[in-house]
Amino acid sequence: MRSVRITNWDIFHVLLRHALRHRWGALATLAGASIAAVLETTVPWYYRQFIDVLGATIPGISASADAFRILGIIIFLNFGAWCGRRLQGFASSEFQPRVMADLERESFSYVLGHSYKFFSDAFAGSLVRKVHRISRAFEVIVDEVQYQFLPLAIILIGATIGLGLRHPTFAIVFVLWAAMVLVLNYVASRWKLRIDVQRASADSAVTAALSDALTNAITIKLFTGASYETDRFGAAKDTWRTLQSWAWRRGEIISSVQAALMMGIEFGFLAWGLSRWSQGLLSVGDIVLMQAYLGIIFGKLWDIGRSFRHMVEALADAREMVEILELPHDVRDQRSAKPLRVKRGGIVFRDVSFSFQKKRVVLDHFVLSIAPQEKVALVGPSGAGKSTITKLLFRLHDISSGSILIDGQDIAKVTQESLRDAIALVPQEPILFHRTLMENIRYGRRDATDDEVITAARQAHCDAFIRACPQGYETYVGERGVKLSGGERQRIAIARAILRDAPILVLDEATSSLDSESEQLIQDALRVLMARKTVMVIAHRLSTIMLMDRIVVVEAGRVTATGTHEELLAGRGTYRRLWDIQAGGFIA
Predict the structure, then answer these.
(1) Among 465, 496, 527, where does a domain finish?
(2) Which whole-number Å values give the CA distances from 249 to 189, 244, 255, 256, 451, in the listed order?
(3) Pairwise CA distance, residues 506 & 428, whole Å
(4) Residues pairing with 504 in the sheet
């Protein structure tokens, strides 16, 4: 899967863009945090005055009116800070879930917009993890900003002003020390970032290995691969474990250095303050003020180390999803794209060439015209390009050169959604949603009524086995439809195509998974389904080929012969050779 280079600013830009869609919630959250931080920073100044007033009061005599006045101010400031925290909390509880939901919704939508090749190169489980991670990363970053970075900035400014008013030298030393601790944390976090990025990637690899194995659990049992898969998963987990240990060890080194710096300034300020007090230059309240500010700052700076690390980990977690969001879609609608209008259903492949990554040529100047409502079978050896032709018709890939026209309209110049709305597909190996049978059939036309779904099921001869299921049409089919047999899944896919009733029909050997009795029933349904439609079939079996108006032989990405079954059989070419191999049927 292709990737793009992403910086931390790219990640912040994506998160900020979503946050600004809910700007009032963001402003209320930040306003509450700011109010609380400002008031909490002001409180130590009044504690200093309160201590000095008490120190000047003679024991046994009632506290002065000044002490009660200062106490009232302290209570008021703490109540104001409490109100700010409540505003912050309630606003954040509304703001964050909205943005997180938006992030996951847009990520989900953008991932679905990627090409067939993108999904061929990616693990579904890993993509699920990445979609969830970006919203979790946003939650972590916003929490750190509102509870740590913003309050710390306000407290540092307030503490510097407070100390500066009592003794400028204290303020200068304090600012230099705080700057040193912040720079240390930033540099240390960058030092740890490389490990965190690798850890996030290793975690995705673990998820991918787990998802891949569980998806193929039956294959693992049949081929006695449990030990092999356990070792494979264990190797991926060991890589993650090693990287996680490295990350935590680096975190401990950072914490140790930070703790030493905190002890140094705390004892240094106490000794310095004691010296100035003994000279009558500072009061007891001044020393209390210094220790109160240091206590607040220590709490924030100690947490800021963890906050930097949490931010770095969150950025690493969000990086993979942002890489996908910044990766342009391989197949995109043109800005001037218009809806496809299908009146007759004629299809033309005009000198079409296509290759994967410019190395493997699949179609080489392919030319084919299908008349409106004509039924054409594509036959040929494996690897000839038959499946690729149908994928290009759906525009799952963009062609290298040439053009594909439907009723004279270039499919590269119409919207993808309107193009695919005009084509119904019955794949060789249908994969169903883990939803009810009713929902799976209705996916062909999601506004269809229950009666229309049941009618389509009857035409596809699957109504009987559906009604025999425990909950009938409300029976869940399991992940990828594993609770159904191959033939049952294929009949559900045919019912879905019948319900869609699109003017163009593509069949990837729609009877290949059916037994002879079921196949006879499906042939009747296919005759009804194909009536008055343009049909393209990847054909392997005689029963399907005999329903076609014309057979097209494809070899090495080109049309090498075309005609009816009898005409091609008499020609002694590739078609005759493949026919003789099957001896009574057709195997590509």
Answers:
(1) 496
(2) 13, 9, 10, 11, 64
(3) 11
(4) 423, 534
204 C-beta neighbours (distance < 10 Å), count: 21
Which pTM was predicted? Answer: 0.67
Tokens encoding 392:
């290009």
Closest CA to 161 of 171, 176, 174, 151: 171
- Main-chain phi, psi angles of 67, to 5 degrees: -65, -45
> Beta strand 504-508 with 534-538: parallel, antiparallel or unpaired?
parallel
Would you state the pLDDT for residue 66? 74
Q: What integer pLDDT is reported at residue 120 of this predicted model? A: 67
CA 466/CA 461 separation, integer angstroms = 10
Q: Say how many domains are in the chain.
A: 3
CB 139 within 8 A of CB 100: yes
Residue 585's pLDDT band (cuts 50, 70, 90): very low
What gap in Å lies between CA 459 and CA 444, rounded to an integer? 14
CA pair distance 186, 242, nearest whole angstrom:
24
d(CA 553, CA 560): 6
pLDDT higher than threshold 60 for residue 588:
no
What is the tens place of the pLDDT at every residue in 27-56? 999 999 999 988 888 887 777 777 766 666
Kindly state the helix (H) or strand (E) to which residue 273 belongs, with its residue range.
Answer: helix 226-278
Q: Are residue 409 and residue 548 in the same domain, yes or no?
A: yes
Q: Domain holding 548: CATH number?
A: 3.40.50.300
The number of CA neighbours under 13 Å toward the Cβ of 324 is 29
Give CA separation, 251 vs 256, 313, 487, in Å: 9, 12, 56
Q: Report the relative pairing of strands 375-379 and 550-555 from DSSP bridges.
A: parallel
- Give the span between the Cα atoms of 96 and 234, in whole angstroms: 36
Query: What is the domain range of residue 391?
Result: 334-422+502-588
Q: Is residue 427 part of a domain?
A: no
